[in-house]
Amino acid sequence: MTTDKLSALLDTDTALFDVQTSAAGPGGALPLTEELLLNAPSGDIFGLTQDAGMGWNPAELGRKEFLILSTQGGIRAPDGQPIALGYHTGHWEVGLLMKVAAEELKAIGCVPFAGFVTDPCDGRTQGTTGMMDSLPYRNDAAMVLRRLIRSLPTRAGVMGVATCDKGLPAMMMALASARDLPTVLVPGGVTLPPTQGEDAGKIQTIGARFAHGQLTLQEAAELGCRACASPGGGCQFLGTAATSQVVAEALGMALPHAALAPSGQPIWLDMARRSARALAELAKRKLATRHVLTDAAVRNAMTVHAAFGGSTNLLLHIPAVAYSAGLRRPTVEDWTAINRRVPRLVDVLPNGPAGHPTVRVFLAGGVPEVMLHLRRLGLLDESALTVTGEPLGRVLDWWEKSERRVRLRNVLREKDGIDPDDVIMSPERAKARGLTSTVTFPRGNLAPEGSVIKSTAIDPSVVDADGVYRKTGPARVFTSERAAIRAIKSHGPDALRPGDVLVLICRGPMGSGMEEIYQITSALKHLSFGKNVAVVTDARFSGVSTGACVGHVGPEALAGGPIGKVRDGDRIRIVIDRNRLEGSVDLIGEGETVFGPEEGARVLARREARPDLAPDPELPADTRLWAALQAVSGGTWGGCVYDVEAILGRLKGVVR
Predict the structure, then answer these.
(1) H or E stretch including 94?
(2) Residue 470: helix, strand or coil by DSSP?
(3) Please, is 124 exposed, middle or buried when counting C-beta atoms within 10 Å of its C-beta (0-12, 13-18, 19+)?
């Protein structure tokens, strides 16, 4: 850098040198008492000094204090224009919810505080090294949020405002940990779909479709530009973000009909205002999180998840919330039992059959409407308390007769020409439309500890008439997502072929932080031959993933799992019974030689692990630490949590 350039960078306008060295400070006096000065910690008193220093009227201090935490990101101008972008639309507008909630708390005589822990975008990091931080981020954020809660010792309750894939589960974990405080969660809502265009799930496939001549460059550019039709809210499909909102409400942590509200609209802001009043009322009635988050609430949430056809990532997040609340973590057996009892009732992207955007699910009645059907089936515990301060049964009684329900369902009819009962269906209508239960947990010689598939989202055209998906094909093995997507886009001899079974390994917790591989599953969904390819992996899937995709395979390849012994050309057989929710993933042949699963298990036992098994060379050290800690704590089937007692027990054993 030349001297002139350095001067241009560092020289300062001399008018700025007139620096003020003291100030009068706020007027008035702190509301101190003799009792406070003699008995309160110095931190409580100094906190009042800080509050006055920030400009709060000292005469209004000493009132009940409530903390509002959010995942807000970016910097918005007063007119909503970006000064600095956030990571995603999901956290772009949640500051507006915080503002309304804070104003309401102040209006009812309380003192609001606010803190922020922003969150990443899983769509933005697809196919990049950023995805290696995605799932580990959840635990880190929950830890910071918990520390923020404890760092305001005078708070009387906590509100959490969050929207998307990892920020919202982290917020639920943090609030669940505040067992003796009243807490309320405000879901950040959803973005609108474009009037003409594609949703934010399909738009992530424009690269693969362009590579196969299904889109022109101009079409890709225009579609990509308008996919997010409003500036705030989570994506328009029932992915992990939207499913987490649904689950938060089903747990009783959010007000009824809070999930999936359209971001930025008056009805969305009203939810935050009413949530603030609910939080203050919980504090007044001395109702804490432990009264709301119970084993019954967890069962209700799992039931609603199944009825919605939610993201398989909630198999990681619901156990984590339960653990944070000091409750029993649900097992694979619990998930299977619930999914066998509970029919899928919601027609929403990406599951279909029509695939409505999430805003239509909100207008059709959202979580409480689904719960009405589940109540008639006797599948809910109506005694579970909600943050309204009332049990679920009474909340559903209100919803069934509410003007809100009637008016919003009419909006859906009038504006979109959609019958609400075609979005949220009765069990009879859902069965007639071919909706099947949500998830299956296949086992087999390649997944002895289990795996998961959103079986309801397999393309019906490749499912046999008896409701069973059967697939046998040659393995195409990849140890990196980058190599797999190259084969999907390729037209050469290395191209993925119809009939192949794509086996992607070294992408579990130890290999890549258990990355999400939506880049692969979305491409296969929207390519003409994709439905004739199956995926088997130790990675996880985006909530918007569909197709014959078997993930969470355990043990993962780097933990000695048999999936790490599969070779190119091995014959893999996948069987998924979508009615009985049973399935298997097995090696049944080598090349032209075919044998049964039992012989396949013996072949795998004799084989050495592949020589190319290795963690991703760019795996961050802190993700490696996360992988080790969650493995000791019960692994992916235990929610990828940090079980402190288990970790300390292991460390003591090592030290001895």
Answers:
(1) helix 94-107
(2) strand
(3) exposed
| Structural contact between residues 270 and 202, judged by C-beta atoms closer than 8 angstroms | no
pLDDT reported for residue 544: 76
If you average pLDDT over residues 605-624, what whole number do you get? Answer: 96
Structure tokens at 41: 């910690």
Query: In 438-570, where does DSSP find H-type helix?
Result: 481-489, 509-512, 518-526
- Number of residues that make up the chain: 656
Predicted local confidence at residue 518, as pLDDT: 87
Q: Which two tokens stand for residue 117?
A: 């822990």
CB 505 within 8 A of CB 511: yes
Q: Chain-centre distance of CA 607, in angstroms?
A: 38
Alpha-carbon distance of 505 to 528, in angstroms, equals 25
Give CA–CA dist 132/484, Å, rounded: 17
CA pair distance 101, 371, nearest whole angstrom: 27
Closest CA to 122 of 234, 259, 231, 238: 234
Ramachandran bin of 108, using left for φ above 0, alpha for ψ from -120 to 50, beta for the remaining angles: alpha
Q: What's the CA gap between 215 and 227, in Å, rounded?
A: 15
Token output for 217: 């460059």
- Which residue numbers are catalytic? 542
Helix and strand numbers (H, E) in the chain are 25, 14
Cα–Cα distances in angstroms (integers) from residue 513 to residues 127, 269, 545, 563, in the given order: 13, 36, 19, 17
Check if the beta carbon of residue 575 is closer than 8 Å to that of residue 470: yes
Place of tokens 């609910």: 278
Place of tokens 């008193």: 45
Q: Residue 543: pLDDT above 80? A: no
Give dist(CA 433, CA 650) in Å, integer: 51
Q: Which residues of 221-251 are buried (b: 16+ CB within 10 A; e: fewer)?
A: eebbeebbbbbbbbbbbbbbbbbbbbbbbbb
CB 487 within 8 A of CB 519: no
Q: Are the beta carbons of 34 and 58 closer than 8 angstroms?
A: no
CA-to-CA distance for 11 and 6, rounded, in angstroms?
Answer: 8
Amino acid of residue 140? D
Residue 381, token pair as written in the block: 């515990």
What would the DSSP string read from start to end of 124-182?
TTTTSGGGGGHHHHHHHHHHHHHHHHHT-TTEEEEEEEE-STTHHHHHHHHHHH-TTS-
First to last CA, the chain: 57
Of the chain, the percentage scoring pLDDT greater than 70 comes to: 100
Q: Return phi, psi of residue 66, to 5°.
A: -125, 135
> Residue 203, Cα to own-chain centre: how many angstroms?
19
**Distance from C-alpha of 80 to C-alpha of 149, rounded to nearest angstrom:** 29
Q: Could you tell me the CA-to-CA distances from 50 to 97, 109, 384 in Å, in that order?
A: 25, 19, 40
Query: What's the pLDDT band for 546 if we cut at 50, 70, 90?
Result: confident
- Tell me if residue 422 falls in helix, strand or coil: helix
Confirm if 361 and 310 have CB atoms less than 8 A apart: no
What's this model's pTM, rounded to 2 decimal places? 0.95
